[in-house]
Amino acid sequence: MSITLHNASIDAVLAEAREAYVAANPRSLARHVEATAAMPGGNTRTILHFAPFPMAIERADGCRLWSADGGEYIDFLGEYTAGLYGHAHPVIRAAIDEALDRGIGYGAVNMTEARFAAALAARFPAMERLRFTNSGTEANVMAIASACAYTRRRKVMVFEGGYHGGVLGFAGGGSAINVPYDWLVAPYNDEDAATALIAEHGAELAAVIVEPMMGSAGCIPATRTFLQALRSATQRAGTLLICDEVMTSRLSLHGLAATMDVRPDLMTLGKYLGGGMSFGAFGGKADIMSLFDPRRPDALRHAGTFNNNVLTMAAGLAGLTHVLTTEAVAALNARGEALRFRLNALCERAGAPLQFTGRGSMMAAHFVRGPVRNAADAARSDPKLMELLFFDLLSRSIWIARRGMMSLSLAISDAECDALAEAVAAFLDERGPLLARQSGQSSLRAAAM
Ligand code: PMP
């Protein structure tokens, strides 16, 4: 018998959920064990690991995933925003097939890269000139390096909980493998603190890099005042403002900062814009980007074997010009916004200590009452309840990030949104007493601190 009794402890309920997961996924477990022979912990992308072992996916189509163990799931993760087109979108597929017919890896410029760059520059006006990279990480590394070269300064301001790539992570005090810049870490959405720091370090500060909505930290949007304050303070200090729109560029036609009337000096892109292929781009004001003009005798060199790889160029261009129309972007974000409102209404009605933050087609769950404005607010979320939500949704055939993030693809329709809302409603219903007890205990703990 299930131990979802009204007085069961969170640990007992979680143990039961994990056991059910282990029992349902023997082939994923076998794959994991095998994988540990060649990769540390069986893993090559940290975020994909979770205890007791990650579920292995064998195949995907549209907004569905099929696991190695025969499970079928609705993909609400959308590859952490890179999967905007859905799996195997016919336009993207045709573009890749056609590119393959002409061979890959020319060791030369090709006929697609400049067209793709022009389409991106037209879509994101802050990118007067741009260059391609192979990932969002690389795009941000290049943008920061460009800012340092342009301003001849070395300090870079980032925000607590911000994430700009594998060597640019600022959650929990940063990372030992971050690139060694002289980082200044400020609290997100605190314009007074940021403005004061910019004024204090202005003469040495090359750049401020900011996500217009923190993605990895849990879909926490910047306020308009905060982003605008960063814009004016950087302008006063001669510091470059870099907007990392690797995730958020999908949230409106011209990116998220544009909706707040903020035009950065440099902007970075990644994820979905490569049509699902490896992709990144950095760009901005023409005079800054002209540092890379190879016709200049003093040009900065920007290398990368795969920067103009024909599969990314073809898939990205086809998606941007044929699929991501004004209407498609608006409809996707309206669907996401409606879904988030609906989920939050369910949580409110249940009086649950759960909320979904985000904008448009991106959202994240937080087991927190009250506003979530920065990493410190998000850190109050109960990790055990998050794990339970993940396994409960999985048992109802819904795939989200283990840390509670979701992003919608174009393949998701109202039917899938209904299925998610029903699954969240069932979670709230079934786990209601546990949620109430657990959140009561966290408030007592918080009050005692
Ligand atoms: N910036 C942001 C805002 C991101 O969310 C990510 C990826 N999660 C990156 C940069 C890094 O992109 P990539 O994983 O392609 O290196």
Tell me what you see in this structure.
The structure is a single chain. α4 crosses α10 (310-323), α6 packs parallel to α7 (224-237) and α11 packs parallel to α14. This protein has helices spanning 10-24, 26-35, 90-101, 113-123, 136-151, 191-201, 224-237, 256-259, 286-289, 310-323, 326-350, 375-378, 383-395, 414-430, 432-448, and strands at 57-61, 64-67, 72-75, 129-133, 155-159, 182-186, 205-210, 213-214, 220-221, 240-244, 266-270, 280-284, 355-359, 362-366, 398-399, 405-407. Helices cover 42% and strands 15% of the residues. It is of the alpha/beta class and 449 residues long. It has a 7-stranded mixed β-sheet with strand order 4-12-11-10-7-5-6, sandwiched between helices. Strands 1-2-3-15 form a 4-stranded mixed β-sheet. A hairpin with a 5-residue loop joins β8 and β9 (220-221). It folds into 2 domains: 3-84 and 325-448, Aspartate Aminotransferase, domain 1; 90-323, Type I PLP-dependent aspartate aminotransferase-like (Major domain) (Aspartate Aminotransferase, domain 2, 3-Layer(aba) Sandwich). Bound molecules: 4'-deoxy-4'-aminopyridoxal-5'-phosphate.
CATH top-level class of the largest domain: Alpha Beta
Which ligands, by name, code or SMILES, are bound? 4'-deoxy-4'-aminopyridoxal-5'-phosphate
Share of β-strand residues: 15-25%
The value of Rg in angstroms is 22 Å
Low-confidence stretches: none
Termini Cα gap = 38 Å
Backbone shape: globular
Number of domains: 2
Largest sheet, spatial ordering of strands: 4-12-11-10-7-5-6
CATH-level-2 architecture of the largest domain = 3-Layer(aba) Sandwich
Class derived from helix and strand content: alpha/beta
- The count of DSSP E runs of length 2 or more, i.e. the number of strands, is 16
The helical percent reads 40-55%
